[in-house]
Design a protein that fits this description.
single chain, mainly alpha, 2 domains
């Protein structure tokens, strides 16, 4: 696993030189290209879903459109024409996923270099190296946040359509347009988390409740995820694990200091609310582990924008930088060694 720690260290050093020599955007672009190459040309042995996508590539003409999104069929055909190999799928998704996230970082925060480091330590390994379709959807999620703030419903729903074409689970994000982007009630979101944990502790069967939703797409997905659970795939969730506790701690600080954050970044309220819902759904849907993970992994992408906001809250800026980098290192180590989301690159 030395490779991932080496890249993390390289990004931290690059961040230092970018600040020292006042070349943040040049360094940022260079790092984006590096990450595209790492994801696009990765070996088949380093990630869990690689061979699944290779199988999809060769069986693309027999796969149902209800199983895979239209964009995957289109990208597979492009890969067949240009590359005559499944390599094209991973390269195209890497270019789209990494570059669009990079664009979103610049649009949403002044700390885009720090967000890039946090991105590599968590969601790059999870999305661009593993769940490549969700990777594009999460990029669209980030890009749609300005349209929520600006109350631009037309642009937002176009982005919803685009994101859903890359991963059907993105459809859940349509409800977030109705969030108030200018004000937040911390007690509501604390209560939301308490409700989620009470539901978990009471043993309420969420699966049976979700099957009553009169939307065929949702009911079909619930059935698929429930079948996976019964087959032994991700059968248990520990909602009191160190990552959940850490994220609740981060959320609590931001709920407490939201007026300060809103003065510094106009998107902070939306980001905090989405982050709260990512934790809530993880706990609330814990009886359906695959769905719980999918929703948290999609909505939780806002974490890499939010965590650097500690810089706004801590007077000694160097301490805030160190805290941010340590959080990134901790998250990466947990994902690699405890959750095992990725194998050795070489």
């Amino acid at each position: 696993m030395w490779f991932y720690y080496a890249i993390y260290s390289f990004l931290v050093v690059a961040f230092y030189f970018a600040i020292k020599y006042e070349r943040p955007k040049s360094v940022f672009i260079g790092c984006i290209v590096l990450l595209i190459c790492i994801a696009g040309f990765r070996p088949s042995t380093c990630c869990r879903d690689y061979l699944n996508y290779v199988d999809y590539y060769y069986d693309i003409d027999t796969i149902s459109s209800s199983f895979l999104e239209p964009t995957f069929f289109f990208i597979s055909k492009i890969s067949q024409v240009i590359f005559d190999s499944p390599l094209g799928i991973f390269l195209i998704y890497a270019i789209m996923g990494v570059s669009t996230k990079g664009l979103a970082f610049i649009k949403l925060s002044n700390f885009y270099l720090l967000s890039l480091i946090l991105y590599f330590s968590t969601f790059f390994l999870l999305h661009e190296m593993t769940q490549i379709r969700v990777g594009i959807a999460s990029s669209v999620l980030l890009l749609s946040i300005p349209s929520i703030y600006e109350r631009n419903w037309f642009k937002f729903f176009l982005l919803i359509l685009a994101g859903t074409l890359f991963h059907y689970s993105f459809l859940i994000f349509i409800f977030f347009y109705f969030l108030n982007p200018y004000k937040i009630n911390p007690l509501f979101y604390i209560g939301l988390l308490v409700f989620g944990f009470l539901t978990y502790l009471s043993g309420v069967n969420i699966v049976s409740l979700l099957t009553y939703i009169p939307i065929s797409f949702i009911s079909e997905k619930v059935e698929v995820y429930n079948n996976l659970r019964e087959m032994g795939v991700d059968t248990e969730i520990n909602v009191f694990n160190i990552l959940v506790i850490l994220r609740i701690g981060i959320l609590s600080v931001f709920l407490w200091k939201w007026p300060v954050l809103y003065e510094k970044n106009r998107y902070s309220i939306i980001l905090i609310k989405i982050y709260a819902f990512s934790i809530f759904f993880f706990v609330f849907l814990s009886s359906l582990p695959v769905m719980a993970f999918r929703v948290r992994e999609l909505l939780g992408i806002v974490e890499i924008i939010l965590v650097p906001f500690f810089i706004y809250l801590i007077k000694e800026k160097y301490i805030a930088f160190i805290i941010t980098l340590l959080i990134g290192l901790l998250l990466m180590s947990i994902e690699i060694w405890y959750n095992g989301i990725i194998n050795n690159y070489f």
